[in-house]
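Q: Structure tokens for this one, please.
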Amino acid sequence: MKRVLTRLGMPLAAAAIAIAATALPALAAGPVPNKGDTTFVMMATILVLLMTLPGLALFYGGLVRSKNMLSVLMQVFAISCMVMIVWCVYGYSLAFTNGGALNAWVGGLDKMFLKGVTAESTAATFSNGVVIPEYVYICFQMTFAAITPALIVGAFAERVKFGALMLFSLLWVTFIYFPMAHMVWYWAGPDAIGDAAKAAAAATGPAKAAADAALAAVQADAGMLFSWGALDFAGGTVVHINAGIAGLVGALVIGRRVGYRREQMAPHSLTMTLIGASLLWVGWFGFNAGSNLEANGTAALAMINTFVATAAAALAWMLAEWMEKGKPSLLGLVSGAIAGLVAVTPAAGFAGPMGSIVLGLVAGIVCFIFCTGIKNALGYDDSLDVFGIHGVGGIVGALGTAIVASPDFGGAGILDYAAKPGEAVAGAYDMVAQLITQSKAVGFTILFSGIGSLVLFKLVDIIVGLRPEEQAEREGLDITQHGERAYNT
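A: Here is the predicted structure, written as tokens:
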């Protein structure tokens, strides 16, 4: 028996050596995606889709009057579908490739129609030597692109033409969202910086200057806000401030709903809104934890922060409303939860849990004030409080990130990929300087989205008209825009 095993072992050993030999070139070519990380981001992608469909659709749908329920569902679903196609045609390329002379602002068209992307293509994460399949990264970022314009519709719900909204959304993602995603999230990646830093550290003599210049060039291969050092873990500026400001501009341009402040416009189904809000919270774990792109401790940090900041903000809003109005409402509770989710988004992977709780408490109270007192005082009709929750909550979160990310307050600080080449280590953290950088990023996002959205709304109004006739609006968009009702009794 021993002799038989020996004879069988010889060809098996030879085969193993041959397999290892053929694998060496593949290993030398670059890192291979880990199945755990790949599965993690795939599941996160599905969760972000759940946020939108049906989460956001049901959340918004329950908040409008029954005659407009179906129109909101239609708007969110149709926008998501359209953006997914546009993303694959040119959006991904504009957001996540080098844009040459315009690289600070927007990417190029090298990957238009996903040219060159295969099942073997990989995308960098935030650790040296760790990658995921590029198709997975494309899908993950696609869900972000799909939900952002869908968020905007809540600001002027019940009073916009469907065709006008679709045209605006197409223009908005092209000229506002894709450039913002590039400016905030495009960079060369940890391996490119690590390799350049290794070469610079090893170089001597005349080659040293050239190696240092190469390192500087790699570090400069990034979007403008990323180059500033702005922190946005999962979309505080790109998604929430961006959508919130666009929503406010739209509400002002389109004007108030017919009968605003004279007729009853209460939500028709807070039950549906609770279901939608709950799905949003569940899906947000994909949004925040998934943005780490790896299943590791930082993803776990983003996960716990998504729990506690949301809970804190929900309670803060509820208590503030209880004190002011004498009764706590379900609408206030779920609105506070969304405000907490929004605020923790840019800080999810940087803050500690205690910092996230404080961030949630602040966001819940500040957003409550904007959605009640300030909104009523100024008189604008932000139908579903897109600006009050996403815009204001995003601003609170983006600015607060500079504070809660500080190691002095339990935060994780910022990784430095060049200090110890080939390994990500925590760099020095200057909270005041970071707060200035975050303020610049917030200010830029407000101006870029505000001015750009104003131009696009005016353009669409000229081309097709933004608003339906008054009688059509009174009858409800379900029938007048889509020829069907959400409920038939």
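A few notes: Residues 66 and 488 are 11 Å apart (CA to CA). Residues 431-463 form the longest helix (33 residues).
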